[in-house]
Amino acid sequence: MSRESLPPVYPLTDFFRNPDRGFFRLSDDGRWLAFMEPVSFDDGPARMNIFVQELDGSTPIGEARCLTRETERDIAEYYWKGSDILLYAKDFQGDENFHVVAVDLNDGKVSDLTPYPETRAGIADELYDDPDHILIAHNHREPQSFDVYRVNVRTGEETLVAENPGNIIAWHTDHHGLLRAATASDGLETTLLYRESESEDFRALITTDFRSSVSPELFTFDNRCLYALSNRGRDCLALVIIAPDKPDEEQVIFEADGVDLDGVGYSRLRHVLTAAVYQTDRVKYHFFDQQAAERHLRVSESLPGYEIALQSSTRDERKYIVAAYNDRTPGSRYIYDEDTGSLTKLADINPALPESDMAEVKPIQYTARDGLVIHGYLTLPKGREPRNLPCVVNPHGGPWARDSWGFNPEAQFLANRGYCVLQMNFRGSTGYGRKFWEASFGQWGLAMQDDITDGVQWLIEQGIADRNRIAIYGGSYGGYAVLSGITRTPELYAAAVDFVGVSNLLTFLNTIPPYWKPLLEKMYSMVGHPEKDRERLEATSPALNAGNIRTPLFIAQGANDPRVNKDESDQMVAALRSRGVEVEYMVKDNEGHGFHNDENKFEFYEHMEAFLSQHLASVE
pLDDT per residue over 374-386, tens digit each? Predict the structure, then answer.
């Protein structure tokens, strides 16, 4: 392949920097557009902050105004509350103790609505029809439990709505914002609770073991029944209606063949379901509503070659923020006007990376050694023959999550450097039904790892991978899979990068955040019990089997990680260094479970790029 046919090598920062402008949201009345931009204060590092700009129809006019002044970390997420208040979440150096903060559009006043130390808070209901209040759940009273409060977004005054008895893991409101349902769990059994009004006590409707899921999505529009995603009596999650007087009878509204449903959309204005969302190789929609289906078709036809998603709307549902993207670009954002059918472009999310130079992401599948079919995605470097390539195997975190089709900056960065990238949805990945999920129980470092190994062998058998130039990289559970891979099959990998990964299953289970403890028995059943399964957990803990490791290893860790304690990485490093094995170790004191500040992201990927280049040899 001639060098002229290869795309340029783009700067690393182009793949991982924040967008110049993104995360667009429309105010309820459609008069204001909010978005985030990186901004530097007092010569400090740039952080994503919230801006607002007035709209004339769908066209931004006048100067954009910065409303927030966050200097330590990017704002994680934000929402409009009506048309004059914005709410955002912020944590502290990656500790995931998020606070809910309000900022007034008119006077710029910023108020922390949950100003409590060591407290994690989140919005339980935005109370759409109440201009002054929201429901917030937080664990200030008891670290393991989340109580619900009605909070005035203008004054910060809060009133207790429901005190958690200790076993409630989710609260559910009706369309009037009343707490009418809750999900309780002791870790092994889950009970759906229901009441007719907030003055009544909850009563149990349905009890299942943790292998079955009945997850309320919303109340029916008469507030009498519940729409839920349920796999009772079936393998995959389906959309059902549950009537409180006949809870064991489910009315199935929609199910997708062979895959779980991810969620359901609805119109607040018209009180109808709009679509169910699920994934096969790509995101799919099943429309219940002709108006929503026709809108999706009109926008899709206006943006050929791109997947579309509606991200925000005005209260009257006449204007929408539209995201258009594919596997080679994070794409562009538009305002769609329902009345005129027009699309007004707001921004390209990453114009520094031309779509034509990025790599195609191909859905693949292979068969694991026990016959289970594993689905995944293969990103091949553009302009190179797919033969004997250096490859990076990238198992996802979770592990009860999944990889999906779309633009992945890590995969595109690695492909731009000449590597092929394999991502697989090993057993336990979500979306493939209950049996596939249950096949992961007790299989950390065993069959789950075999699925990854079998994917590597598939790459080699296809002739795509050079068996001597394969690396493995992953974060969180993916980091555990990295360490497990170089412990179980050290001959397979020429380099390994572990990012905030678990190394010792015994200590990991003892250092989980307090708000995970109600689910600890479930974790014991899915991962292993530290007493009953101690021998297996020791055998599958990389830090306790470090004598097998000979693969060059780079570890990165956030000091404030609440999920995978820093001790997990410290143990691994100590176990290797005690044997005289050098391991490269990067710790960031102002990060948690992953790196979010640009300067730390850049340093991590620069180090990883050099590390992979050193151990997989230069790419021609």
Answer: 999 999 999 999 9
